[in-house]
Amino acid sequence: MAVVEAVNLGMVYPDGTRALKKVSFSVEDGESCAIIGPSGCGKTTLLFIFSGLLRPTEGYALIEGKEIVAPPKKAALILQNYGLFPWKTVIENVALGLQIRGMKAKDAKNTVKPILSKLGLEGFENHYPKQLSGGMQQRVAFARALAIKPKIMLMDEPFSSLDALSREKLQNFLLELWMKERLTMLLVTHSIEEAVFLGRQIVVLSPRPGKVVKIIENPMAGSVEYRNMEEYFEKCREVRKSVGATW
Q1: What is the pLDDT of residues 180-231, one digit of tens each?
Q2: What is the radius of gyration, based on Cα positions, of the chain?
Q3: What sections of 74-209 are H helices per DSSP?
Q4: Disulfide: which of 32, 130, 216, 240 matches 185 by Cβ 3.0-4.6 Å?
Q5: How far is CA 1 from CA 178, 183, 201, in A?
Q6: 140 close to 132: Cβ distance less than 8 angstroms
Q7: Domains along the sequence of the chain with CATH
Q8: Is the dihedral of CA 147, 55, 45, 194 positive or negative?
Q9: CA distance 224 to 130
Q10: What are the C-alpha distances in Å from 205 to residues 1, 91, 168, 191?
């Protein structure tokens, strides 16, 4: 069953800018989808629509067959700047989502401690974001998302500001997380290699207004070893060709 679905989605901003035009695709339960396209093609707009922060001006955005009219409780959004509050400690940032949902601060902090330990953040609970590396800040953002036990992860270029080594490590981490938790993932990226490594389905968007140029199936994604296989490089070439034809 499609968990995330776009049906002829269109978005025109109040100033007349058309960001999206007749975008349609679906992501089934437990699958991963990477969205790739040039800057300004509406990728982030698309994520904001699925997160309930924007309403489309045309078409429908659905989660489990229901139109999104408010931020869905089953979805967590991770932004490229991590979205951490600099005046809050690691544990306060991670517990925030639970507190917003009504849990007492003390209970929320106790609840997230195992998640911090799981993500290698034990011992850093009382640090502030500025005291952490970019990779650790990204782990805090993932911990905050996981604390609310989402079924769907929406990610807007979560690794774009990291160095190549940290980026690859966190790509591996995200892949392992997806395989273990069987989350449904929607990932926006500019990187062809990242799209192929993490997306079992790759949606290629055109320049603004973003339209679906091609949907590429990538069934071999799902293994850390995929990067070293000839099939990976062949799929990167296929995606690059599709992307190159539109940019």
Answers
A1: 888 899 999 988 999 999 999 999 999 889 899 999 999 998 888 999 999 9
A2: 18
A3: 90-100, 105-118, 134-147, 164-181, 192-198
A4: 32
A5: 18, 14, 15
A6: yes
A7: 28-74+151-247 (3.40.50.300), 82-149 (no CATH)
A8: positive
A9: 30
A10: 23, 37, 24, 13
Q: What are phi and psi of 225, to 5 degrees?
A: -75, -10
- 80 close to 154: Cβ distance less than 8 angstroms: no
Helix residue ranges per DSSP H, 182-214? 192-198
Beta bridge partners, 187, equal 34, 155
What is the rounded CA–CA span in Å between residue 232 and residue 164?
A: 18
In the chain, the DSSP E strands lie at: 2-12, 18-28, 32-36, 58-63, 66-67, 75-78, 152-156, 184-189, 201-205, 212-217
User: What is residue 25's predicted lDDT score, i.e. its pLDDT?
Assistant: 95
CA distance 90 to 202: 33
Exposure string of 54-89, with b = 16+ CB inside 10 Å and e = fewer, is bebeebebbbeeeebeeebeebbbbbbebebeeeeb
State how far the Cα of 173 lies from the Cα of 118, in Å rounded to an integer.
11
- SS3 of 104, please? coil
